[in-house]
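Sanity check

After download, print the first record. It should look like this:
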Amino acid sequence: MKGILLIGAALALLGLVGLAMPIFHTTDTKSVAKIGDLSIQAKEETPHTIPPLVSGGLLAIGIVLMGAGMLNRQ
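Expected structure tokens:
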């Protein structure tokens, strides 16, 4: 059950990253006005928040899956 162990490790890692960096930003470029060949664009930065409950849940599920993968190996 090497697959379960790897999936558990990946989920646990995602949970740790979510707890370490709960806020990240994305940038969108939108066209504001277009007159002939001239185009005016604006960049908009949007913050996104990962709830701690989701990060903690991912971490817990990852740990459980890693434990199940190790028990199946024996």
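If your output differs, re-run the checksum step. Summary of this record's structure: The first strand starts at residue 23 and ends at 35.
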